[in-house]
Amino acid sequence: MRETREPLLDVRGLCAGYGASMVLEDVTFSMGVEAVAVVGRNGMGKTTLCDALVGFVPPRSGRVSLRGERLDGRAPERIARAGISYVPQGRRLFPSLTVDEHLSMLARRTRNKRWTPQAVYELFPRLAERKKHGGAALSGGEQQMLAVGRALLLNGHLVVMDEPSEGLAPTVVDVLVDAVHRLVDEGVAVLVVEQNLRAAVRMARRQLVMVSGRLEAEFTGDELLARPDLQHRYLGVGTEEPVGR
């Protein structure tokens, strides 16, 4: 893997799984304050990587460091306090709580911090319009914006997003892409796990390809877009035409 000179996140030899099943094997990469995408077919271990980074799946071996601090083996809440926030696949919102109530749960920890509920509403104006609506009454795109906004209220150094574009209209994906670039510009790193190559390359220049629990290759988004053979080999898309932007 090509790596940044001074990594914010440093993952070395990470192995993790469920019960007797090993899913991640010797995963190694690093990143700075940037957006990086992990792409691959379904069932390759991408979500397990997310879960291992945020503490939902304890690593069997290897290490995970954020800003030089070892985090592997810690409980999820301690990892969150250390600076990694998570936008899970499926959003995991509370159906009966309003947008405002979701954000207010974390508001007391945001005083004098960059990300407050008001800042989230400025990033996602649609949420401000829907602040009194319950989670179950939101569209898929609005739910995803709320899930991202909730993660930002932890004011961490790294946001991990699992399949953020899944099931969303192109206009909503545009909003999320803009949000990712804004976060990086403001000094927050973003690790995006995606199956949607179009969304992944718009969010991140670096593309890490996961195959059977291993990071097999790294490309730039432009390289993947220009190479239908690579798209077919690693992502299972057609070979006739490259996936466009």
UniProtKB/TrEMBL annotation:
It holds the Pfam family ABC_tran. SUPFAM superfamilies: P-loop containing nucleoside triphosphate hydrolases. SMART domains: AAA. InterPro entries: AAA+_ATPase, ABC_transporter-like_ATP-bd, ABC_transporter-like_CS, BCAA_Transport_ATP-bd_LivF, P-loop_NTPase. GO terms for molecular function: ATP binding; ATP hydrolysis activity; branched-chain amino acid transmembrane transporter activity. Keywords: Amino-acid transport, ATP-binding, Nucleotide-binding, Transport. Residues 9-237 form the ABC transporter domain. One of its GO terms (biological process) is L-amino acid transport. The keyword Transmembrane helix does not apply. Belongs to the ABC transporter superfamily. PANTHER family: ABC TRANSPORTER ATP-BINDING PROTEIN, HIGH-AFFINITY BRANCHED-CHAIN AMINO ACID TRANSPORT ATP-BINDING PROTEIN LIVF. This is ABC transporter related protein. It comes from Isoptericola variabilis (strain 225). The lineage of its organism: Bacteria, Bacillati, Actinomycetota, Actinomycetes, Micrococcales.
